[in-house]
Amino acid sequence: MTKIIAIANQKGGVGKTTTTVNLAASLGVLEKKVLLIDADPQANASSGLGIDVDVVEIGTYQVLEHTASINDAIQKTTSPNVDIVPAHIDLVAIEIELVDKEQREYMLQKSLTKLKNKYDYILIDCAPSLGLITLNSLVAADSVIIPIQCEYFALEGLGKLLNTIKSVQNIHNPNLDIEGLLLTMFDSRLRLSNQVVEEVRKHFSSMVFDTIIRRNTRLGEAPSYGESIIAYDATSKGAVNYLSLANEIIKKNA
């Protein structure tokens, strides 16, 4: 049974794409078949896995428009067991183009029905907004991972995202679940980081993943080589953290 997980937060710079790419690679090396869908017009998840986004002819844009089958949009990546539906900057136009279409919130969900049971996990890298592309992702997903950076404005906007998720549950996707809140960019030397962890765990307790993603320079370097942290430096703290997260998700969904 395929598990579809959206990685979403309307705040930028919280580690959404880093999490999507490296979680996909970690699940892949743990012998799970993974499809990553890049639903962000910035296409950083695509370039982060070595895809040349300038030459993408069929990607998320065509899938959402239903001008191409999702099977035609899938590309292999160099990460073991990881395929990708890449994005291109033209995805930015989809918000306007879908606005008059009937059932516009269900475009991605309808496309994914053709892939049921072909993959163990489908991960969707959402744009840093609560627009139509993110809404499509949440409607298509079984659950959502919410990355929260261990910094001052960590909880700002989280209420709005949780309200959006509740709205999607009520109107479009009653089965949508919160897979977990993921604390990212943690620096144990900073009192503020420790305070944020304490605050988030106090408010959300069992919703928070045990795994915390520590701040790690190797995580920042890997995308410039078009590689996941697993391929770039498998011994780094970042790789160890994302493998731990992958194991936690596999165990939770066993």
Explain how this protein is built.
- The chain is α/β, with parallel strands linked by helices and 254 residues long.
- The protein has twelve helices and eight strands.
- The chain has an eight-stranded mixed sheet with strand order 3-4-2-5-1-6-7-8, sandwiched between helices.
- The protein starts with a strand and ends with a helix.
Unreliable sequence segments: none
Name the structural class: alpha/beta
Task: Give the overall silhouette.
Answer: globular
Radius of gyration: 17 Å
* Number of E strands: 8
Largest sheet geometry: 8 strands, mixed
Order of helices and strands: EHEHHHEEHHEHEHEHEHHH
Strand content: 15-25%
Strand order of the largest sheet: 3-4-2-5-1-6-7-8
Helix content: 40-55%
Gap from first CA to last CA: 11 Å
Number of helices: 12
Mean pLDDT: 92
What are the key terms here?
single chain; 254 residues; alpha/beta; 8-stranded mixed β-sheet
Short description:
This protein is an alpha/beta fold. The chain has helices spanning 16-29, 44-48, 60-65, 70-73, 94-98, 107-112, 132-140, 158-171, 191-204, 217-221, 229-232, 237-252; strands at 3-7, 34-39, 75-76, 82-85, 121-126, 143-149, 177-186, 208-214.
